[in-house]
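Issue: ligand-bound run for guanosine-5'-monophosphate - logging full I/O for the record.

Environment: standard queue, default settings, no custom constraints.

Inputs:
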Amino acid sequence: MEEIEVLIDEEEIGLKVREMAKVIAREHKDEKEIYFVTVLEGARTFSDDLIKEVMALGGFKVKNYLVKVGSYGGGSESSGKIEVKKGLVEDVCGKELIIVEDIVDTGLTLCFLKEYLLKEKNAGSVKICSFLDKPSRRKVDVNVDYVGYVVPDKFVVGYGLDYGGRYRELPYVGVIKG
Ligand code: 5GP
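Outputs:
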């Protein structure tokens, strides 16, 4: 197995996720329910932890919708043409949604998903919560409302992020050496 250089360790991840959950909870304290939209597969680990932390703060009803989006033909790099691979069957009309994503890279995926939720699903509003942000690679302007860490222009793995289906289960975020 390749050697991995740790960028963000397990303890730092835990603290950051708790901090993000507190901010979201504070900003939504007057709402009856918080509606998350988790982008499969990469964001699942972060989303599970984040939602657990929000629920641990008490007093919140939470709904987590699951969507899958990707470039036409698959591949790890966004081709620029994104499609919905598993859409929302639930009615989110008028709801205030928070997209939960693992990483914002070019921004194309989130730009597309935001449009899909607002225009096709008639969501009331859409915010974005991403654990990682790689702003140096941005191709389209996308406003990320909640960010965990800004990372350098390197291909990162772990904490849900994979490389060819591997490394998702690593408890830390790292870069493959070499
Ligand atoms: P976008 O370029 O559309 O902002 O990013 C789309 C997707 O590319 C992300 O959700 C993620 O699945 C993948 N991606 C972007 N950068 C990285 C990276 O550094 N590591 C991994 N594992 N996936 C990435």
